[in-house]
Amino acid sequence: MDSTTPDLARLAAEIKLWGRELGFGAVGIADIDLSDAEVRLLEWLARGFHGDMDYMARHGRKRSRPDELVPGTIRVISVRMDYLPPDSADPETVLNVPTAGYVSRYALGRDYHKVLRRRLQQLAERIQARIGPFGYRAFTDSAPVLEKPLAQKAGIGWVGKHTNLLAREAGSWFFLGELYTDLPLPTDWPVASHCGTCRACIDVCPTQAIVAPYRLDARRCISYLTIELKGAIPEDLRPLIGNRIYGCDDCQLVCPWNRYAQASAEADFAVRHDLDAPRLIELFAWSEAEFLARTEGSAIRRIGHERWLRNIAVALGNAPRSAGIAEALRRRADHPSAMVREHVAWALMNHDSTAKTGFMTIHRWV
């Protein structure tokens, strides 16, 4: 090694230090051999578990072969950033109030894509300042990247039975990001699974989307149904969604490892617009302009106003009957969107059938 060649072991240690300084909870380095993960991905796709997420199959094997996605890549720097917002309403309390809407905790603050991408760019700039120009590309759930297998190889954590990444010291309330690079950095040791015989996540899933340990049928997953699915939510699954209007955290809420999760120190992930415990009726009254204004800079905006109303209509249909809910639904009964009208009609039918049984319970969210 001549005087112009960086000490790669020292550089790897510095990268991890710089990552911590930039707010990442962990930084690890992986090689690009994802052959085992590729087999699992192809099997998952063959079973149709990806549903309408055509992008999962669109890029061929580039997802599992980093050097085909970014030629010259030989290492992946994987990072973790905790997102659990401090001082937010207790998730289980919100889930137990059927007139409140539950938003997945990751979406309560600023869109994580923007936050992580900026920090990854800053990390790359620090590396460049240290060694000069080098090849890299940053990703944050924004391209065909198998981020969880890469993070496991990089020592960040292991893929749990619910298919989320878990870390012994941080649970699963975190985002992942990657720097693909041509630097021949020393790699870290992969993390073995520590799920043991636990199956809490499998048993708690409202729609039984975790069809076997480490195997998720996205077509039944509430996160898929409320975020990824563009069309109508299957009728048989609507009652199981409860009051979850954007995503679902049930498998994380019951995971024993999340007792070690820490609240995020990132101001960007603090709760916005009181969406940690909102009233369904109030959200359902938002115009499209209000929706766009109140979700500016948020990951929620990507589903659009139409799907937002679809999701809330389902939640209102699952809530106990009340005159206020029925009136809110009727105001949207002639909405221009056929999809919204369908879900509103379903919700009103639920309330009508409840009324005929004589069962009436009113909850108030204070």
What does this protein structure show overall?
It is built from 16 helices and 10 strands. The chain is an alpha+beta fold and 366 residues long. The protein has 2 domains: 8-84 and 109-181, no CATH class; 200-357, no CATH class. The strands form 4 sheets. The protein has a 4-stranded antiparallel β-sheet, with helices on both faces. It has a two-stranded parallel sheet with strand order 3-10. It is elongated, with a radius of gyration of 22 Å. Pathway: tRNA modification; tRNA-queuosine biosynthesis.
Strand content: 5-15%
| Estimated helix fraction | 25-40%
Oligomer: single chain
Number of domains: 2
Low-confidence stretches: 355-366
Spatial ordering of strands, largest sheet:
1-2-7-4
Number of distinct helices: 16
Main β sheet profile: 4 strands, antiparallel
Overall pLDDT, averaged?
A: 93
Strand tally, please? 10
Radius of gyration: 22 Å
Helix-strand layout with pairing:
Layout: H1 8-21, E1 26-30, H2 35-46, H3 55-58, H4 66-69, E2 75-82, H5 91-95, E3 102-103, H6 112-131, E4 136-139, H7 147-153, E5 158-159, E6 165-166, E7 174-181, H8 200-204, E8 210-212, E9 215-216, H9 222-228, H10 238-241, E10 244-246, H11 250-253, H12 280-284, H13 288-294, H14 304-318, H15 323-331, H16 338-357
Parallel strand pairs: 3-10
Antiparallel strand pairs: 1-2, 2-7, 4-7, 5-6, 8-9
